[in-house]
Each structure stands twice: as structure tokens, then as C-alpha cells.
């Protein structure tokens, strides 16, 4: 009975991930998983890899948070986070200590030595915190006196 209940919970969780992220299949692999049904959280740890189409996130730990309708509310990845996001006209890759993703708004918050490389426009930005909107391509970057933001881009000279 316990195994059946756990299987139903995991099925609901994976179905919610599937529906919440643009109705495209989401696959999460890790060394271990723990579901906290009352808190509506699923904790993945050890070599976590989230894959959805051509997009992926890798880290040591990920917590997936769900709302009351069991739809994905946010993902929080910690520990050596690396990622690659691709859409029809955009492609980004980067890294950070922590990445928080809000699927309903396609907003990413990267913290701790955050880096995003725009692979199409050949731009590079880094800072302590980057808030990135995947739908608009807009980014807000915060640095500090010790670690100022850095923006690098190619300039066509004619």
C-alpha cells in the first residue's frame, strides 16, 4: 500500500511538471528523491539533471514546489548549477550557485557568481544576481564593489 501511494504521488508530480512547463515532457534524474506531500515539495539530490526538450539544468540539489492544484510553482536548484535554454530565436547557457525558475512567468533568478551567455547575439553577462525573463530577453544584473557586473559583447566595426 505504501509503495502504491508513493507511486501515485510521483506520477502526480511528474504529470504536474509536464503540464506546467509548456506542456512538454519534463524528465528529472538524480541519485535520490524525497516527496513531501503535505508541503507540496519534491527534493532531488545528487547529480540532478532536469531535461525538457532542448533545455536542461544540472545541479547537486533541486526542490520542485507545487501549488494547491498540484501544478509546478517553482524550481530551486543549488550546488554547481549549469544550464542551457533554447527557443526558436534564442539560446542561452550559463551557471550560478543557485537558480530559481518560475515556469508560469518564464523568469529565472540566478545568484552567486551568476553567468549568462547569449549564444545567438554573442553577449556575456555576469554578476552576483541576475533576474532573467526568457519571454522578453530582459535581464537585471546586480554586482557589488568587490564583484562588479561585467557585460561583454562583440561590436561590428565597418
What does this 3D model show about the protein?
The radius of gyration is 17 Å and the shape is globular. Strands 1, 2, 3, 4, 5, 6, 7, 8, 9 and 10 form a 10-stranded antiparallel beta sheet that branches. It has one domain: Sandwich (lipopolysaccharide transport protein A fold). With 158 residues, the chain is mainly beta. It is built from 1 helix and 10 strands, in the order H-E-E-E-E-E-E-E-E-E-E.
Condensed summary:
This protein is mainly β.
Question: Which tags fit this structure?
Answer:
lipopolysaccharide transport protein A fold, mainly beta, globular, 158 residues
Amino- and carboxy-terminal Cα gap: 71 Å
Number of helices: 1
Give the total of domains.
1
Instruction: Give the class-level CATH name.
Output: Mainly Beta
SSE ordering: HEEEEEEEEEE
At CATH level 2, the architecture is Sandwich
**Remind me, CATH topology?**
lipopolysaccharide transport protein A fold
Overall average pLDDT: 81
- Would you identify the CATH H-level superfamily? Lipopolysaccharide (LPS) transport protein A like domain
Strand content: over 45%
Largest sheet: 10 strands, antiparallel
- Low-confidence runs (pLDDT<50, min 5 residues)? 1-22
Coarse structural class: mainly beta
Q: Total number of β-strand segments?
A: 10
Helix content: 10-25%
Q: Over all CA atoms, what is the radius of gyration?
A: 17 Å
Principal-axes geometry comes out as: globular
Amino acid at each position: 500500500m505504501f509503495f502504491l501511494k508513493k507511486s501515485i504521488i510521483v506520477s502526480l508530480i511528474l504529470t504536474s511538471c509536464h503540464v506546467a512547463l509548456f506542456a512538454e515532457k519534463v524528465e528529472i534524474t538524480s541519485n535520490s528523491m524525497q516527496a513531501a506531500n503535505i508541503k507540496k515539495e519534491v527534493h532531488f539530490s545528487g547529480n540532478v539533471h532536469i531535461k525538457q526538450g532542448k533545455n536542461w539544468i544540472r545541479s547537486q540539489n533541486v526542490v520542485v514546489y507545487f501549488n494547491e492544484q498540484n501544478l509546478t510553482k517553482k524550481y530551486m536548484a543549488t550546488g554547481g548549477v549549469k544550464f542551457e535554454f533554447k527557443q526558436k530565436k534564442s539560446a542561452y547557457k550559463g551557471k550560478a550557485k543557485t537558480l530559481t525558475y518560475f515556469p508560469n512567468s518564464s523568469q529565472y533568478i540566478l545568484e552567486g557568481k551568476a553567468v549568462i551567455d547569449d549564444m545567438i547575439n554573442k553577449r556575456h553577462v555576469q554578476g552576483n544576481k541576475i533576474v532573467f525573463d526568457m519571454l522578453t530577453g530582459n535581464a537585471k544584473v546586480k554586482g557589488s564593489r568587490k564583484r562588479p557586473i561585467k557585460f561583454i559583447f562583440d561590436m561590428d566595426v565597418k
